[in-house]
Amino acid sequence: MSIFKLTAAALLLTATAARSEGPGLGQPLEASDIPFYATYVTPEGAGLPAGSGTAAQGAEIYAAKCATCHGATGSEGPVMPPVGPNDLWAKPAGSYWPYATTLFDYIRRAMPLEAPKSLSDDEVYALAAFILERNGVIDAETAMTAETLPAVKMPNHGNFLDVWAKQGAKPW
Amino acid sequence: MTRSTKDSAALDYAAGGGLLSRRMLLASAAAGGAAGLLQPRVARAEAEIPEWTKAAGARARGYGAPAEAESAVQRAIIEPWQDVAPAFSLSGTPHHKLRGTITPSGLHYEVHHGGRPDIDPARHRLMIHGLVERPLQFDLKALERYPTVTATHFLECAGNSLFNAVMPEPMQAGCDMLHGLVSNTEWTGIPMRVLMEEAGVKPEGKWVVAAGADGPSLARSIPMEKIMSDGMLALYQNGERIRPEQGYPMRLLLPGFEGNMNIKWLTSLWVTEAPVHTKDESGEYTEILADGSSLQFTFAMGVKSFITHPSATMTMSGPGFYEISGLAWTGAGKVAKVEVSADGGASWAEAALAGPVLPQALTRFSLPWHWDGSPLVLMSRATDETGAVQPPRADWKARYHASNFLHYNAIQPWQITAEGAVQNVYL
């Protein structure tokens, strides 16, 4: 074997080692094999699907599928009521969370507790609209869509201190 | 706890309330035996031979279980909304019934936002995608061929000790209810860095959104820096496959970070430029401060300790010698020292730490103690290697909004009454 070939082989080995210390057994993952819950809707709205829903539509779905846990009008609970704040829950989803987009993603992936991922995109938009309207964040006429939801200004936005950015892993 | 009738005048005191020098530990225990505890009260004509010593024992079995007489050692189950949302359930480790530092796998605490899923390991997969050169997926069979590392680390729910944080009067309950949402395990798994490097993280990939395969698909944004430094894909818990309660067949382990970030049933790692503000980093695990503003991305758990022996719900068995024992930990690294007070904080003595003291792991501390039978308050105060010290409850409360129950790490006082009852108190 020539010196040139030896050097090439050594370079190839080095390159493989730099890529990973493991055996390299991962299989290619196609975009079509990634379910929606493996990503998250961003505050800018990336990842929001087509669809639309109003607070009035959301009220009906809420009464049928959500009220048992979160209360008749959204503030009674017992489970972390999304409308408030009140003595039961100081951090309601519809007024405390910094971004409205989180409402869509969380409801779509996790609610209702006994049947997560069972709601249609229109139903999820409608529930987000209902919760925001009940908190006085949007008016009753505005439908929530991939365009309107990320544009919603949440009242508590800007009231958070990012501890990681400030001091890293040092406990607060 | 053990006890003796040793003459208290000869003891080497380290602080008020009967705290003894750490050097006394072995000497005192030995003296207990010599003081007459081993003498039978009545002489027998013939020594009794118990029946189990006169029969063949049970045959070997495939998987062991605790002794029947220990069947009361269980996790304390907390279901805040059991009527409407029973799947949102918690259970606390009964630290007052355990010793050592490793939590038995079946007694590791649980916090399930949507119950414990029943996952077929043959169909489970881990995806790495987003800002990577090569989006990849791994099944369990492939992951079994990767080199592993083993490390002992605690996991603590950000809401551990919530009752002490928010209840106006101290709740009278055991360490399982009061402080049970912390456990300690020897984890074995694959360094996250190896898997991320195989996928090839792009330079703009600064965060990883990890998601579980449970019903709610619980998701958290995690800094790439943490994933690459000591993040682990944990496959084994105390030498056996991770229990379903802890994330079978695989979970993310982020040493020192609040429990919910250590995603159980891990199925996806999505590399992003920025955090995506998931539900759990928007409301559930943010802390409202006294001024109404909030803390977000509070990842590491603070320095903390509590005395397990004696502790609330126990009853002292009379004056005499005891070993005070407890647990200390910090998300910042190693515990540097633990001090114990037996006079409500007027004086302190340094406890012995059972070595090796490991980073981000429960550390057992102990101190010999001669209780003279009078009422007093016992407490422990841990300091970590960064110099952080556990605060008194009033100082902790002053920092936060009254509703906050997250990241509570205040000193735990136990009151011993003249009758020997051990009670939870606020000081």
What is the fold's blueprint, element by element?
The complex is a heterodimer of chains A (172) and B (427).
Chain A: H1 3-19, E1 27-28, H2 55-65, H3 67-70, H4 101-110, H5 121-134, H6 148-151, E2 160-162, H7 163-167
Chain B: E1 13-15, E2 19-20, H1 24-37, E3 76-78, E4 89-92, E5 110-112, E6 125-130, E7 136-139, H2 140-143, E8 149-156, H3 162-166, H4 175-179, E9 182-191, H5 192-199, E10 207-212, E11 219-223, H6 224-230, E12 232-237, E13 240-241, E14 251-253, E15 266-272, H7 279-284, E16 287-288, E17 294-296, E18 304-309, E19 320-329, E20 335-341, E21 349-350, E22 352-353, E23 363-371, E24 376-384, H8 393-399, E25 413-416, E26 422-424
Parallel strand pairs in B: 6-15
Antiparallel strand pairs in B: 1-2, 3-4, 4-5, 6-7, 8-9, 9-12, 10-11, 10-15, 12-13, 12-14, 16-17, 18-19, 19-23, 20-21, 20-24, 22-23, 24-25, 25-26
What features would you describe in this structure?
The complex is a heterodimer of chains A (172) and B (427). Chain A is an all-alpha fold and 172 residues long. Chain A has a domain at 47-157: Cytochrome Bc1 Complex, Chain D, domain 2 (Orthogonal Bundle), CATH 1.10.760.10. Chain A is built from 7 helices and 2 strands. Chain A has helices at residues 3-19, 55-65, 67-70, 101-110, 121-134, 148-151, 163-167; strands at 27-28, 160-162. Chain B is of the alpha+beta class and 427 residues long. Chain B folds into 2 domains: 111-288, Sulfite Oxidase, Chain A, domain 2; 304-424, Sandwich (Immunoglobulin-like), CATH 2.60.40. In chain B, strands 7-6-15-10-11 form a 5-stranded mixed β-sheet. In chain B, strands 8, 9, 12, 13 and 14 form a 5-stranded antiparallel β-sheet that branches. In chain B, strand 12 (232-237) and strand 13 (240-241) form a beta hairpin. Classes of the chains: A mainly alpha (172), B alpha+beta (427). Strand 1 (27-28) of chain A pairs antiparallel with strand 7 (136-139) of chain B, so a sheet runs across the interface.
